[in-house]
Amino acid sequence: MKRSEHFKLRPLWTTALLSLCAVFSVHSFAALSPVQQAAKERGITLYNQYKPAENELRIAAEAGDSEAQFYLGESLRRKNRHMTAEAQEWLETSAKQGNLYAMVRLSRNRYGLCTVIGNCTKGQKSPEEWLEKAYELASAKAENNDAEALYILYWITVDDLPFLVKSAEAGFPLAQYWLAKSYINGEGFFWLPWQRSQEVERWFKASAENGNPKAMIEYAIILHENRGDMAEVRHWIEEAAKTGYQNGVAHLAGEYAHTPSLFGFPRDLVKAYGLTSLLLVLDGGGGTLRFTQRDIEKLSAQMTPEQIEQGKAFALEWQTAYPRPISFFPMRLDPLDSLF
Predict the structure, then answer these.
(1) What are φ and ψ of residue 121, in 5° steps?
(2) Distance separating alpha carbons of residues 145 and 156, to the nearest angstrom
(3) pLDDT of residue 227
(4) What DSSP line would sit under 86-134, residue for residue?
(5) Distance from CA of residue 173 to its chain's centroid?
(6) Domains of the chain: residue spans and CATH
(7) For residues 185 and 177, is the Cβ–Cβ distance under 8 A?
(8) What pLDDT is stored for residue 336 in this prediction?
């Protein structure tokens, strides 16, 4: 019996999902020229903003970069809402270079829209074979305590929580975040209820300290609810915004606008306007643009023309100090991916 018969894809989360970023790992083997590298980075930025990214990603993908090949395949698949022949070709090209995310994506094709409408492209391997290959490669890496491989095993196996715990303990930020979320959702066993909440806080904090902006927001909320340490709460809200995370920037802008202020930030319409204006770049998918435009209008109605200009200047200063692009940071292994 094949090993793949002993495991299956992780079931969908039943709670509301946060998209997670893909900034904690790199699967890239080709040596790119400066122009190709710049195109790749631009392409990933556009992908993370739910904008068309194929033209930029194709430059690095055609140069042999496996990470760009993965993102190009995903961009094409998402644009068409199902696995097209070209999307599958790029994902298979990436997978053949050892990209585990591409392998898992290909293994999930059996649950996609193309299966329903009966036009799936015949690939070089079947979805089951890609799942088997992903499991074998991730397992080999996990034997050396590869934190990211353990995280990937969590998403592709039934026996998921032990892998997630090991990945979190090895320091992988996304695993730490999802372990906290798993405990919130009732997974794991604890003798006493307060032990569960302790572990939730512990892992959100660890993930936040390792640079995960979504964990920063979660940890700030826990601090506010449990201890009311406003100085530390404000620190983590600001840190989340500095990463370029859309929800972090929106949180900080709302605090300065007092709409409302939950964490004791002083009212500052200039900063609120500047931060909110940064979110106007998210004019592709994601559904946030109309809310941003509404907030800009509300702020403008309370400000003088001079203050508005100051707000625009503050936005430029912020971008100079914290140049990471505004991003939704979508997950590469999103449970909802199996829907199309």
Answers:
(1) -80, 135
(2) 17
(3) 74
(4) HHHHHHHHHHHTT-HHHHHHHHGGGGSHHHHHT-PPP-SS-HHHHHHHH
(5) 11
(6) 3-159 (1.25.40.10), 193-321 (1.25.40)
(7) no
(8) 60
Instruction: For residue 132, count other CB atoms closer than 10 A to its CB.
Output: 19
Say which residue the tokens 């200063």 belong to: 317
CA separation for the pair 303, 277 (Å, rounded): 14
Q: What's the rounded Cα separation, in Å, for the pair 257 and 281?
A: 20
* 211 sits in which H/E element: none
Residue 89 pLDDT: 95
The three-state secondary structure class of 202 is helix
3-class secondary structure, 306: helix
Provide the CB-side half-sphere exposure for 200 (13 A, CA): 22
Which amino acid is located at 97 in the chain? Q
Q: What is the mean pLDDT of each run of 10 residues along the chain (340 residues)?
A: 40 34 51 97 98 98 98 95 92 97 90 67 84 96 96 85 96 97 92 92 98 97 88 97 98 96 95 98 94 98 98 98 96 66
In degrees, rounded to 5, the angle at the alpha carbon of residue 66 between the alpha carbons of residues 60 and 69 is: 60
Structure tokens at 281: 């770049």
**Token pair 């902006």: residue:** 213
Conformational region of residue 186, where left means phi above 0, alpha means psi within -120 to 50, and beta covers everything else: left
Distances (CA, A) of 173 to 62, 111, 269: 31, 28, 34
User: H/E element holding 337?
Assistant: none
Instruction: Give the per-residue pLDDT at 123.
Output: 72
- Per-residue pLDDT at 112: 62
CA 41-47-48 angle, 5° bins: 90
Cα–Cα dist 103/98, whole Å: 8
In this prediction, residue 335 carries a pLDDT of 65
Rounded to whole angstroms, the Cα distance separating 168 from 162 reads: 10
